[in-house]
Amino acid sequence: MSILKCGPSQRSFVLAGAAIAALAAAACTEPRRADQSKPAPSAQPEARIELSDSLAAPGTEVEVTVRVVGARLASMTARLAYDTSGVRFIREEALSDGATRVINPQPGLVRFAAIAANGFADGRVYTLRFSVIRSSALRSFDLTADEAHTISQANLVPALRRKP
Questions:
Q1: Which structural domain range is residue 63 located in?
Q2: Whole-prediction pTM
Q3: How far apart are CA 159 and CA 91, in angstroms?
Q4: Where are the alpha helices (DSSP H) in 8-148?
Q5: CATH number for the domain including 76?
Q6: Quick one: average pLDDT of 124-144?
């Protein structure tokens, strides 16, 4: 049996070759599974207060629409608060979408409920008419959803964002 002996220059060459082979092996590895793109986040349900004219002058009337987007809303009970020194409630507007609606207006607060078995097609839950006393009061509308459910009976209130 013979043992091969290597000189210092041959050992350096062998070690360098082993290091290059290890680096090449590490650089050429393929991922074991393909990276999947994450799905786009679903739109979060959002309650909106829409004004027919956000710059309405005193003495004019504006329509205030409560609309929910991002989910197929089937029912909602809510409160719309407002500044009585700047706007005055006049009436609810009739909507021809077949939904059932009830309203309880009080000075500074309008309570309402609406239900549509197949959902509100365009998300419009309620439309109310106000008279403008002071234009700056148009920013005072504040919506609070007490109950909101989708057509599949899912509770939307915990996920519902409010957008003025």
A1: 46-163
A2: 0.70
A3: 30
A4: 8-27
A5: 2.60.40.680
A6: 94
